[in-house]
Amino acid sequence: VPNGTNLCPNHSLATLKVQRPPRLNSTNIVSSLETLGLDGYFSFENNHHAAKDFGNMYHFLPSAVLHPKSVPDISNTIRHIYEMGSASELTVAARGHGHSTQGQAQAHQGVVINMESLQRLEMQVHIGKTPYVDVSGGELWINILHETLKHGLAPKSWTDYLHLTVGGTLSNAGISGQAFQHGPQISNVYQLEVVTGKGEVVTCSEKKNTDLFYGVLGGLGQFGIITRARISLGPAPKMVKWIRVLYSDFSTFTKDQEQLISSENSFDYIEGFIIINRTGLLNNWRSSFRPKDPAQANQFSSDGRTLYCLEVVKHFNPDDTKTVNQSIENLLSKLSYIPSTLFLSEVSYVEFLDRVHVSEKKLQAKGLWEIPHPWLNFFVPKSRISDFAEEIFGNILTDTSNGPILIYPVNQSKWNNKTSLVTPDEDVFYLVAFLTSAMPSSTGTDGLAHILNQNKRILDFCATAELGIKQYLPHYNTQEEWQAHFGPHWKVFVQRKSAYDPLAILAPGQRIYRKAT
Ligand code: FAD
After folding, report:
1. Rounded distance from Cα 164 to ligand 1 centre (Å)
2. Is the CB of 469 inside a 6 Å radius of any atom of ligand 1?
3. Is the CB of 99 under 6 A from ligand 1?
4. 101, 106, 249, 500: least buried by Cβ within 10 Å?
5. Residue-wise pLDDT tens digits, 390-441
6. 99 catalytic, yes or no?
7. Predicted interface score ipTM higher than 0.85
8. Strand partners of residue 154
9. Domains in the chain, please, with CATH?
C-alpha cells in the first residue's frame, strides 16, 4: 500500500471544513461512479495494466479506470469524488503512457484516468510569428512531431524518447539535449487547461491564473490534471548530422561540454554518456555511424576502461550541407576528444528524435523491455560534478553498468524557477541519469537486489558528501525527505496543494500526501 503520510499537519488538508458523512464501503463508491453520465466509460474489472508501469517494481490495483472521451468526463469524476469529501478514500491518478518507474501514475483502490483516451481531441497547429500547437494532455510527443512537421514546424525541446504523453512529461520537466538552449519542455509551454482536485476546469498561462500554471509545470500531478497544452513551436530541420566522440579524462570531457553549452551558434543538441568496460564499442557503433578515420578507429580498445562519450547533433537542410559541415568542423576543432574516436552519421530529423524507439523494438523482441527498471536521475551542480564522478565512477560503478548512464550540463538561465520543479542553485548543472535494467530472476550483479543496493550507495554518498544534488523524477517515502527535496520551495508547494487539491485526491502514487479522511 502506498506509504504516504499527510505531510503538513498544520495545513488545510487536515483543517478543511467538511462535515463527516457516513463512510461509504467500496461497493457503494463504485456504484456511485456508475451513476455519472459520461461521454466515455469506466472499467471496473481487468484493470491490471493500470497497476503496471515501466519500472515494473510497483503494482497497485485501482478500483476503476476511467476512459474519458471529454474534459467534462474528467471534471465530473473529480468533482463527484471531491464532493464525497472524507466519506471516501478514493484518490485519482492521471495515467499518461505509464512510463514512470515507481508507481507514480498508480492509485491503490482509487481511480486511474487513462489520459490517452483523450488523445482524439484534435491537434491544432497555429502558424505565424509565434507558432504553437494545441494538444490534449494525453497526446504522445511522437504524434505531435508528425502533425507539426506537416507545417514545417516542431516543438523545440524534447525528451530522448517520444512515446510519452504531454501531461506526463510536463508534470516532471521533459529534458533532452536541446535543454541547454531552449530549457526543458516546461519552459516551452504557453498555456494549459487543467482540471483541479476540486473538479474545476481552469485555463492558465503566464498571465492568467499564473500560480496554477507554474504550479502544474513540474508539479508531479499534485495540483491538477492537464487536459490541454499549448506548446511553442519552431522551424523544423529536415536532417541532422549526428556525432559521437570519446574522452578518457572526465574533466576534459566536462570542460568541452560546458564550453559547448555556453557558445553562440553551438550544436543543436548536446548530451553525453559514460561507458564502463565495454568490449568492441566502436565496432558496435559502425552499424549506424561511420568513423572519420577507419584505420585508427580499428586500433582503439574500450575494454576495461571507463570512457566518456560526447554526443552532439547539428540540424541542417539538404541545400545547406556545405555551411553545416564548416560549422561542425569549426566547433569540433575547439574540442579535445581522442581523435581516432570521431564517428558521424546523417539521418532525418524524425529518425534522430525517435531513436530510442528503435532500441525499444529490439529489446521488446528479446523480452528485455518489460523488466524492472530501477532508474535514478539527478541534477548535480557544476561545482560538484567531479566529486560526484570520482566516487560514483571511481568506486561504486567500476566494472560494469546495467544500462546507459547519461551525463550532460544545462544552463539554469533557460529554466523558470517559478515552476514547481526544483534544481540546484547554480548557473550550470548536470543531468545524470542511471537508466538501469534488472534481469528478473538474477541474483548476480545484474539482479534487482544488487542494483537497488548500488542505488542506495549512490544516494547515501550524495547525502553524506552534501553535493547539493536534486533528484529528477524524484521518489521519496517520508515527510522529511520531500521537505528536504523542495527546500525553501516547500512552503509554496503546500500552499498550492491546499488551494488546488485540498483533499489530496490527485496523484497519490507520488507519495507526497495521503488523502485526508
Ligand atoms: P505517467 O508515467 O503516466 O505519469 C507520470 C506522472 O504524471 C504521474 O504522477 C501521473 O499521475 C502524472 N500525470 C500523467 N498525465 C498527467 C496529466 N495529463 N496531468 C497531470 N498529471 C499527469 N524524461 C525526461 O525528462 N527526458 C528523457 O529523455 C526521458 N526519457 C525517458 C525514456 C524512457 C524509455 C522512459 C520510460 C522515461 C523517460 N523519461 C524521460 C521520463 C518520463 O518523462 C517520465 O517518466 C514521464 O512521467 C513519463 O510520461 P508518461 O506519459 O508515461 O507519464
Report:
1. 6
2. no
3. yes
4. 249
5. 999 999 988 778 999 999 999 999 999 999 999 999 999 999 999 999 998 8
6. yes
7. yes
8. 234
9. 12-115+480-510 (3.30.43.10), 118-235 (3.30.465.10), 238-369 (3.40.462.10), 371-475 (3.40.462.10)
